[in-house]
Amino acid sequence: FASREHVDPHNWGPTWIIALGNFVGGELWAEDPDCGDSEHICGVDICGKFAYRCGERLCGRVLDAHGRWQHFDGRRLHFTKPILGTPDRFSLIFYSLHRHGNVAAQERSAAETLGFVMPPSTPSPAESK
């Protein structure tokens, strides 16, 4: 699967990705204004936490996730570069959603140990009365 330019609007923090399969190409381009060394001309208009305009020049990184974990900010623009030959590419992608503020303490601790940024805890309906 080769994703088009997009942002993950419900993503709370860092995203982790690994791409598996027999393929060539298919790197992930991810906007990173702080340490990007790859320029991209945006092809879409997107409103949200970060806004983008078609034709805007962006700075980012090309991440080779083929068989290795990579992390990026999924709230920023990202997409899959072309896959060459037979597109036998499968991705595992992990990130926290806003609703993960409801997670139990043990699961929250495990996720934070792995480097996930968790949203603030939200009280249960019984606790908020």
Describe the structure.
The chain is mostly beta strands and 129 residues long. The protein has 1 helix and 9 strands; from the N terminus they run βββββββββα. The strands form 3 sheets. A 4-stranded antiparallel β-sheet has the order 4-5-3-7, with no helix packed on it. The chain starts with 13 loop residues before the first strand and ends in a 16-residue tail after the last helix.
Strand order of the largest sheet: 4-5-3-7
Biggest sheet record: 4 strands, antiparallel
Which geometry do the CA atoms define? globular
Q: How far is it from the N-terminal to the C-terminal residue, by CA?
A: 46 Å
The unreliable regions are none
Helix and strand string, N-terminal first?
A: EEEEEEEEEH
Mean pLDDT: 88
What share of residues is helical?
under 10%
What percent strand?
25-35%
Number of helices: 1
Structure summary, number of beta strands: 9
The helix-and-strand class reads mainly beta
Strand-helix topology:
Elements: E1 14-20, E2 24-25, E3 28-31, E4 38-41, E5 57-63, E6 70-73, E7 78-80, E8 83-84, E9 90-94, H1 105-113
Antiparallel strand pairs: 1-6, 1-9, 2-8, 3-5, 3-7, 4-5
